[in-house]
Design goal:
The complex is a heterotrimer of chains A (about 375), B (about 325) and C (about 350). Helices cover about 30% and strands about 25% of the residues of chain A. By secondary structure, chain A is an alpha/beta fold. In chain A, the strands form four sheets. In chain A, strands 9-10-12-11-13-14-17-18 form an eight-stranded mixed β-sheet, with helices on both faces. A four-stranded antiparallel β-sheet of chain A has the order 1-8-6-3, with no helix packed on it. Chain A has a four-stranded antiparallel β-sheet with strand order 5-4-2-7, with no helix packed on it. In chain A, helix 3 packs across helix 4 (about 200-215) and helix 6 packs across helix 7 (about 265-275). Chain A is globular, with a radius of gyration of 21 Å. The two termini of chain A are about 40 Å apart. Chain B has helices spanning about 5-30, 45-50, 70-75, 80-85, 120-135, 150-165, 180-185, 190-195, 210-230, 255-265, 265-275, 280-305; strands at about 60, 140-145, 165-175, 175, 180, 200-205, 230-235. In chain B, strands 1-2-3-7-6 form a five-stranded parallel β-sheet, sandwiched between helices. A two-stranded antiparallel sheet of chain B has the order 4-5. Chain C is of the alpha/beta class and about 350 residues long. Chain C folds into two domains: about 1-195, Rossmann fold (3-Layer(aba) Sandwich); about 205-340, Rossmann fold (3-Layer(aba) Sandwich), CATH 3.40.50. Chain C is about 40% helix and about 20% strand. Chain C has a seven-stranded mixed β-sheet, with helices on both faces. In chain C, helix 8 (about 220-235) packs across helix 12. Chain C is globular. Classes of the chains: A alpha/beta (about 375), B alpha/beta (about 325), C alpha/beta (about 350). Chains B and C meet through helix 5 and helix 6 of B and helix 3, helix 4 and helix 5 of C.
């Protein structure tokens, strides 16, 4: 049986990808989950893993080639399958629409008026509500690899926090409690009463603060590399994020986010630079910095209150996190389930998206 | 004539200050204490002061090659001017501008100008600011008979009429563009008539050594600018007492002409009239002269003693940020 | 985020800044384009329609048509800039700067220095540049070197719509006089341009691609010529770094030097005439500060030392193209091969 390997659609905005490097040569056997190749998108370089075990028979796409999502990039088949059959398969392959969960690919971001702020969000799928809250300097697109697969079973909502993405570039309430308040007002504005909350880094602290302030509104809590569980933090990352201007400096700073620093490509750095050039961003980030940091440490620590959270709590932490020390994930109260990810840095939703999706699905099921 | 006694004394003090300043600058320049060359305003005091007596701090003036008189009349610091002309630190422009680029934007002084005809477009720009920002200010472009022939002047005059801005062109016709006489260099012969052809009221003050004549004509032009928001012009026929620059022996001017200039000294005429009419006593004017002399002496002492700009200043102030 | 042309991006930048800051005015020939006529008062919106629509929103007090008197336009803008406004003067074609050069380089550029640091002259002079329109010698020049030479001026030359908007907003907010040169042959090039206001700092190069073999520095329209050449070279296995300095004053010297330190080869592509030009300036910079890194001669791809011709075949021959850039790259690389053979 011939198994096609096609250009994946990582996230709602991806339309094409470029082959950067093959990790497996034709003729080699691969196991499920083994790295096949690196693919560069406009956002990030990522690794495509084999969905099942088999033998890689043919590279259809060469290094440097850019192909649309759904295009054939390799062929897997048993050793006994004749080359002629593979040739015929490659020759007759037609791109079909990539399976995109819940039609999420056609979903356009919307905006909600929250007080005098306009907040941008991307909502896809149907089912129980899942709300994604990004971290300092991020935006909703950072959830793309996680939101897309979850949208097949959930009403997924990723928002841009005030001062971020395409939301208003003002942060009137820059501390964790203030941001949690904005989150509550946002959910009111879009008519979501109760949701699974998924927060990353600063967004994790915001999710936690929200769950503490509104226990009845949190169906579950999932914290990825969260802030708010200890004093220590890589404050230099935050300060450099705000102040680095040259692309080299921005790239070097962003590399701290990942276990594999090669994941930071020029497009990602350029996106960050372009975001920082927008009117109001500098002031927004400085306001967040001022409220979030106290000297070189985190100003708000909610660790002691984790035990109060009634909903199930999942913490996901990359062992190689260089922004928030993974040690802060140790010794948490018994109501918290902690999952450690090897070879993952501060961005597990990017570096280990598949695992994060699986963990979240399990966690949501448990909560339900 | 509507000037109070205080105003008359102020006008005299300004004119006397210009005269004393210029005579001293000339002397110090000849001695070699002042670098470069200077173009002195002595003899034309009634023009600058007769116009600027109508102006407030928020009004603007653009000046000329021969700009010291305009600076003093508009209220620039005499001491800081002297330090500047000496090329010293602490000068009005930090020693970087010198005589030809003296400016004080805080006093509404857009700068003397090393380029003949450089100033009128700038002054129209300040008038556009006044109109757009509704500050109520007016802007005066001082220019000479030489600059009246420049394209920039013609362009500025037309622009002021087209844009309907409160700009007043004051043409100080001192008879010479450098060494070339107005009868030769001005083809039309009549500068104010040529100016009026742009579509603005233009008056000619035939005797610009008469402070009162200048004051009244300038008053009409400035009133037009302030009240109608439209440009106007005044041509003031006057005379340099010296040459184009300090040390110019002026062989292009006849002895008769130079004697006539001496006789028509605007300060002498002013003194004669106000004392004659009993408006200000001679003693009071003498007292002003003494105060002015002391001021100039202080300015020279300060300038002579001031340090040179630090060499590091060479490359500062090129940009606000770079 | 929408795709916008350079023309639309420039219009967008002007509109946003005029909304944000009431002291920003537009002044120039036909920026409304129809003042005093018997028809509509804003018929043109600039000769190529770049300022179209602004008159309707901001009115004749802020979108000011002038007589065809360049010295007065620039002088008025300079005088307005030191007295409280933030004028954007449009000079139509850069060739016309000859008519008013005194007001630019003796007046506006020097105020701050002559006045001992007390002046701020926040003015922008927008002007169209470049050949390719069959417009001959007085409507087609690339004169950025003249302005780059003058201390006190900043010189900006966007190559794409994203840069055009961010650089123009920066120029308007900048407190120094800025010469902003728009290449008329690339007005319709489109790019992703955010709707919001943003600024791109001056003196920060855009590195469009990175390769180990050669550094190509190009500006304005020539960036696209350089990129075309780089793609051809890549197909032949030669990887070029392409640097768009975006501003010639200030110049991002570090990005150029760092790249040449890595590649050892420099090609500069400039649409201007070759003598005392941006191309020779960058060449001199590298020869002076990175000589030891060079593995082959610096090659310059420029227009010839002649005015811009009218006849289409001559004009096409005048403008640097990708084939010439490719040949220059091969020439400097060949020198290394000769040396090591």
């Amino acid at each position: 049986m011939i198994v096609p390997i096609t250009m994946p659609r990582w996230g709602l905005t991806m339309t094409e990808g470029t082959v950067v490097e093959w990790h497996v040569q034709p003729g080699a056997s691969v196991g499920a989950g083994q790295m096949l190749l690196d693919i560069e998108t406009t956002k990030i370089t990522n690794t495509l893993e084999a969905a099942e075990a088999g033998v890689l028979r043919r590279h259809v796409a060469e290094v440097g080639q850019t192909l649309p999502c759904g295009a054939l990039i390799a062929v897997m088949a048993p050793p006994e399958t004749p080359d002629a059959e593979i040739d015929a398969y490659v020759g007759s392959f037609v791109i079909t629409e990539v399976a995109d969960a819940g039609g999420a690919a056609e979903v356009e971001p919307k905006t909600a008026a929250v007080g005098d702020l306009t907040l941008n969000y991307l909502r896809a799928g149907a089912g129980a509500a899942v709300v994604f809250i990004h971290g300092f300097g991020g935006d909703l697109s950072g959830w793309a690899l996680v939101q897309t697969p979850l949208a097949s079973a959930f009403d997924t909502i990723a928002l841009d926090l005030p001062g971020h993405g395409k939301s208003s570039k003002r942060v009137p309430h820059a501390d964790v409690a203030g941001l949690a308040g904005e989150l509550a007002a946002f959910l009111d504005a879009i008519g979501v009463q109760r949701a699974h909350l998924v927060g990353h880094s600063l967004g994790g602290a915001v999710a936690l603060a929200f769950a503490l302030a509104h226990p009845q509104r949190a169906a579950s809590l999932s914290l990825l590399a969260p802030a708010g569980l200890g004093r220590e933090i890589n404050a230099g990352y935050i300060r450099n994020f705000i102040r680095a201007e040259r692309r080299k400096d921005v790239e070097a700073n962003l590399r701290q986010l990942f276990c594999n620093p090669d994941l930071v490509n020029r497009a990602l750095a350029e996106d960050v630079i372009r975001y920082k050039r927008l009117d109001g961003v500098r002031q927004s980030l400085e306001a967040l910095e001022g409220a979030f940091l106290s000297g070189e440490q985190q100003a708000t620590v909610l660790r002691e209150r984790l035990a109060e959270v009634q909903a199930p709590v999942l913490v996901i932490w990359g062992r190689e996190d260089r922004i928030v020390p993974p040690a802060q994930g140790q010794g948490l109260p018994a109501n918290v389930q902690v999952e450690w990810l090897e070879r993952s840095g501060h961005m597990p939703q990017v570096e280990a998206a598949d695992k994060v999706v699986a963990l979240l699905k399990r966690h949501f099921a448990k909560a339900a | 004539m509507q000037l109070s006694r205080d105003k008359l004394v102020e006008a005299y003090r300004k004119m006397a200050t210009i005269r004393a300043f210029e005579e001293r600058v000339g002397a110090e320049s000849v001695k070699g204490a002042i670098p470069g060359f200077v173009h002195l305003y002595a003899g034309e005091e009634a023009a600058a002061v007769g116009v600027c007596m109508h102006l407030g701090d928020k009004d603007w003036i653009g000046s000329t090659h021969r700009g010291h008189g305009h600076c003093i009349a508009k209220g620039c610091s005499v001491e800081a001017m002297m330090v500047e002309i000496y090329g010293k630190a602490g000068g009005l422009c930090g020693g970087k501008g010198g005589s030809m680029h003296i400016a004080d934007l805080h006093m509404g002084m857009l700068g003397a100008n090393g380029i003949v005809g450089g100033g009128p477009p700038l002054a129209v720009g300040a008038a556009l600011s006044a109109k757009t920002l509704k500050t109520g200010a007016v802007s005066v472009a001082f220019l000479g008979d030489g600059a009246s022939n420049q394209g920039t002047t013609a362009e500025a005059m037309n622009m002021a009429v087209v844009l309907k801005v409160p700009a007043v062109f004051v043409i100080e016709n001192n008879g010479y563009g450098e060494a070339t006489a107005v009868g030769y260099h001005c083809g039309a012969g009549d500068i104010s008539a040529r100016t009026a052809a742009f579509g603005m009221p233009a008056e000619k003050v035939e005797d610009g050594t008469d402070f009162f004549a200048v004051y009244e004509a300038a008053g009409r032009a400035l009133r037009h600018a302030r009240e109608e928001g439209m440009p106007a012009a005044v041509e003031i026929v006057c005379a340099r007492q010296g040459g184009h620059y300090t040390g110019d022996p002026q062989p292009y001017r006849s002895k008769d002409e130079l004697e006539q200039v001496k006789k028509n000294d605007p300060l002498v005429r002013f003194r004669k009239r106000v004392t004659g009419e009993g408006l200000v006593s001679a003693a009071d004017l003498d007292q002003v002269d003494r105060e002015v002399a002391a001021l100039i002496e202080r300015a020279v002492q300060k300038a002579a003693a001031a340090p040179l700009p630090a060499v590091e200043e060479l490359t500062t102030d090129v940009y606000v940020s770079y | 985020m929408a795709k916008k042309s350079i023309r639309a991006a420039v219009n967008d930048a002007l509109k946003l800044e005029m909304r944000r800051d009431p002291t920003v005015i537009l002044i120039g020939e036909d920026v409304a384009g129809g003042a005093g006529g018997s028809g509509v008062q804003d018929a043109w919106g600039g000769v190529l329609g770049v300022t179209k629509g602004l008159y309707k929103e901001f009115g004749p007090g802020r979108v000011i048509d002038t007589p065809i008197t360049e010295s007065a336009i620039i002088g008025v803008a300079a005088g307005a800039a030191v007295s409280g406004l933030r004028p954007v003067a449009e000079l139509m074609f850069v060739d016309f700067m000859g008519v008013c050069f005194d007001q630019i380089f003796n007046q506006a550029a020097k105020f701050r220095y002559m006045f001992g640091g007390k002046a701020r002259t926040p003015m922008v002079i927008r002007s169209m540049m470049g050949a390719g329109f069959r417009a001959a010698a007085q409507h087609s020049q690339s004169l950025h070197a003249l302005f780059t030479h003058i201390p006190g001026l900043k010189v900006v030359m966007p190559s794409n719509a994203y840069d055009a908007k961010g650089l123009l907003i920066q120029a308007i907010r900048d407190d120094d006089p800025v010469i902003f040169l728009e290449h008329k042959a690339i007005y319709d090039l489109e790019d992703e341009v955010p709707d919001e206001a943003y600024t791109i700092p001056f003196g920060e190069a855009n590195i469009l691609r990175e390769g180990d073999d050669v550094t190509i520095v190009a500006i304005s329209r020539m960036v696209h010529v350089a990129m075309d050449a780089a793609k051809r070279l890549a197909a032949a296995g030669i990887q070029a770094t392409v640097i768009d300095p975006r501003t010639t004053s200030p110049l991002d010297e570090d990005s150029i030097l760092e790249s040449v330190e890595e590649t050892g080869h420099l090609v500069v592509v400039d649409e201007a005439n070759p003598r005392c030009s941006f191309a020779t300036d960058v060449a001199a910079l590298v020869a002076d500060r990175a000589f030891g890194a060079l593995k082959g001669p610096i090659k310059l791809v420029t227009a010839p030392h002649s005015p811009v011709p009218f006849a289409p075949n001559l004009e096409d021959a005048y403008i640097p193209n990708a084939a010439k850039v490719e040949a220059a790259v091969r020439a400097t690389l060949a020198a290394r091969e000769l040396a090591t053979a």
